[in-house]
Specification:
Shape: globular
Number of strands: 47
Radius of gyration: 26 Å
CATH superfamily of the domain at 5-305: Glycoside hydrolase, family 65, N-terminal domain
Number of helices: 20
CATH topology of the domain at 5-305: Beta-galactosidase, Chain A, domain 5
Strand order of the largest sheet: 1-2-11-12-13-14-23-19-18-17
Strand content: 25-35%
CATH architecture of the domain at 5-305: Distorted Sandwich
Helix content: 25-40%
Length: about 800
Amino acid sequence: MSRYGSWCVIDALPAFRYSADQDSIAEAEWDTCMVGKTRRHALGIGNRRLQAYIDNQGGISVFDETYGLRWLTAPNPHGTGFSIVEESDGPRWSTDFANRIPGTVPTRTFGPTWFRIEAQSERVKLERTVLVPEGEIPWLLIRVRLTGLAPVRLRLIEEWAVRPRFLNVGVAQDSSIEQQAQTSAHAMRQVHYDCTTTPRGVRAREVRSSDLDEPTVRSLAESPPSPTIPTVFGEPLVLMLEALGGGVNCAPRHDAARHPVLSLDGEMNLEEGETRELWFRFGVEQGSCADPEALYSSSLRGLLERLPTATSTALPMAAREVPWHAAILTGGACADAVLGGHTLDQATGYAFGLGLNGAARDPLQHALPLIYTEPDLALSVLRNTLAWGRPDGYLPWCIDGAKQARGGAAMPAYQAASDLTLWALWLAAEYAAATGDLDAFLLPAPFHPEHAFAPVSVFEHLRRNFNYLVNNIGLGPHGHLRVLDCDWADGHMGEIKRAGLTRADVAARGESVLNSAMAAWVLPVWAGLCARLGDHRMADEARRFAEQLRLATAREWNGRWFHRGRCDDIVVGGDSLFLETQPWAILCGAATEQQSRALLNTIDELLRAGSPLGARECWPVPAEEISSGRPGEALAGGVWFSLQMTLIWAAARFSPELAQDEWRRFTLTNHTNVYPDVWEGTLSGPDAYNAPASRRPGRTWAFSGFALQQFPINCLHAHAQPLLSYLRLLGVEPLADGSLRVAGGCGDFRSRTFQISADGGGSLSARGPVKLLTRGGLVTGSSGNVRWPARSR
């Protein structure tokens, strides 16, 4: 249904074959709302070290945040990495769409961890595949196949431009894509590259200027870096382009911005029907690759083994979308050489526009579905995000592009976020319930190096997070958790403008019903983990605190929905329905069954009706947003993946049909059916779509000075939330006694570590003691493969 191509199956996994000529489709051009218009349609793929942003122009932009947020090859205006064919007595053409054979349209195929271009002239057919190998390999593997359609002599050139760019919050971004590509480590930190050749390839080594002194580095970082933190990037970077075979010439040169262009070339004769295969690798110089064909095959086998599968009669698109979402989600991970573990950055405009990894709630919720597919990665993300924090239990809203927390100074408007602890406690509790890995909570984990504080156990980190929630965030006069600078909605709590409130008012005296309702569900589950680890005092305290918050939330029912918040004597959400609070009120038990059913009907009537992509964030749209020209966007009634996830989860208890329909609405399949001309939503998406009231429905939000529309793909919410909510539709969720509910539902799910069928039967790979509430009763296991039937025999 897409204007640009169609889905297919390759190597038993989903892929998208892009067959359109974007230059001939008027609707293919889209406005970034920041740096002009473009016809670039991209997707990010990756492993646990690199991300490669591949596009319909044939280019690739490589991103690595091991030491800091950094493009190795930045968009300019699209990527690099092309195969160039020079035919003897014939044309010169390339896998760069702009330099293709005139009158032809190459087929570009987007795979889960690879990208392929198929192009040809009258005498030569070329197939080029770029693979991100499995694991933490910091380079891309390139296979070029050349087939003679007639006898020909040719020269093949493999060419990559090195265009590094360091991203950091507070550093001014230039006004065009081309200028942004030049705002890099080269420009900011007086770094240049020395090129050398080897018998098999070409290297570009990052060289620091001898006059770069410590005060210069401090001024760029906007604060003195701790001596325990590698300054911005750690060791100098060495990029290489290597031919994995002989018969090539090496040719480094420099482009106008003084960045190296690495190229290899070789000449050959091809007879009609003859095929030659060449292999290259490009990326950070590390290790060797003696057998590229074996690595290629083993990576595809490993990918097929680790990605989950799904089948559902009610939701048939799950068969394609579940493995696809899992691949793109895990492709956003990156090993962290500064803080340890793996980061699961939200990326998109937050990293590439603002230059930050945030908010902390995001990697934590991105990791939740990984508990059931790659639990080691979920735990690694938990440890990494805890390492952002202070010894008193405070988690900063973000870390900056150089991985410095700086007490929240990277984004001072949000340094007192009030909900971050809840996400850490939730991830920890669900991980323990689903894996039984209690030993993981006894292992030491660091604090951010800037605090120079000795590591403590993971459980002690979490205990301090909980104490910070109770003692530092605390309760307001109406018994709700204080909102401080922000809860889920950054810098905003509902209708503060219409209520005559300022952000300063809310930060000083505001209370968040959303946080209270969420905590009333999270804290009993956290208490179950505390009890399993022997801390019954903290378990009891968490349960008492949760019950206070549940009762406070219950008092906010106004006959149609639950309020959003309070500030002094002002009720926020009395005349407006805010989606974010409602599912948590159902999940925590603040809503009675009668209220829950009535509330879901109201949500269906006011937030879902007329919104093909799913429930809007609020109703009605604020008048000032209508006059501003941004109705239906962001927090003025946009459609948010993270809110749809909790709605699906809550609705599954009382209205399974509504829950399944909401899941169906936020699928890639549905977005393509509704908006076939819009690229975002075809293979990936942002954190929120614009509702029909917007002037740009189906796209994403844009404000003056910052627009997620600038980079509207690969927000990991678009991939994590469909996975987690699908599991919730199958009746999978942690319970307050530390057990895991596995009831079954509208389909099947299978991964290497967890399986559940529609009838409720299944198995999991336990790392310790687990308790499973099945349809047939309680099932326990200690370790290894734990199975349970659909019903007791």
